[in-house]
Amino acid sequence: MAFLEPVSLTGDLVSLEPLRPDHHDELVAAASDGQLWELWYTFVPSPAEMADDVAARLARQAAGTMLPFVVRRSADGTVVGSTTYCNADAEAPRLEIGYTWTAQSAQRTGVNAESKLLLLTHAFDVLGCLAVEFRTHWHNLQSRAAIERLGAKQDGVLRHHRRMPDGTLRDTVVYSILHAEWPAVRNGLRARLGREPGQSR
């Protein structure tokens, strides 16, 4: 059995569905909410790039190193973003949660917090991960603040780590949550979502 098997994760605010080619149009609509591809410090596919991005992530899923999801808001059934398990290492085991973006109108609504709760719960409690990693651009202050609010600790900075689409070089900030830290992180996320510590959802 592969380390990363497609799975749907369901909460109160959102459900995370394994990415499929027919999610293309819904992802284009979500990315267009705020024209997220114009943000210089991150990469969100433009409408013209979305088909290639979906195909690339599904190819990496087939190779066993990635499991991409769409984020669907439960209240109205709208796809409001994307997130991914990536850089999976079954031997450790550990993985990264990345390639995450959220439609502008769905930001600061609990969508990201519950998505992270679902992903971290599956990673630690089902897959048995020893650590879960997050990476972001040094200049993506919104993303860095969101990761730090989770309770993730900064491991370091990879200087000139990758080249961005505009040709600039990105310094990548690396964070992680260890298995021993997960109970406190879980309680913090549940508190942010207004749930009692013992609730599973």
Task: Characterise the protein shown here.
Strand 3 and strand 4 (79-89) form a beta hairpin. The chain has helices at 24-32, 50-62, 111-126, 141-150, 182-192; strands at residues 9-10, 14-18, 67-73, 79-89, 94-102, 131-137, 153-163, 169-178. An 8-stranded mixed sheet has the order 1-2-3-4-5-6-8-7, sandwiched between helices. The chain contains 5 helices and 8 strands; from the N terminus they run ββααβββαβαββα. 29% of the residues lie in helices and 31% in strands. The chain is of the alpha+beta class. The chain has one domain: Aminopeptidase, CATH 3.40.630.30.
Q: What count of helical segments does DSSP give?
A: 5
| CATH fold topology | Aminopeptidase
Mean pLDDT rating: 93
The arrangement of helices and strands along the chain is: EEHHEEEHEHEEH
State the helical fraction: 25-40%
Could you give the distance between the termini?
27 Å
**Number of strand segments:** 8
- Rg (C-alpha, Å): 16 Å
Low-confidence stretches: none
> Structural class, from helix and strand content?
alpha+beta
The CATH level-2 architecture is identified as: 3-Layer(aba) Sandwich
Strand line-up of the largest beta sheet? 1-2-3-4-5-6-8-7
Shape: globular
Content of β-strand: 25-35%
Keywords: Transferase
Pfam families: Acetyltransf_3
Protein name: Protein N-acetyltransferase, RimJ/RimL family
Organism: Blastococcus mobilis
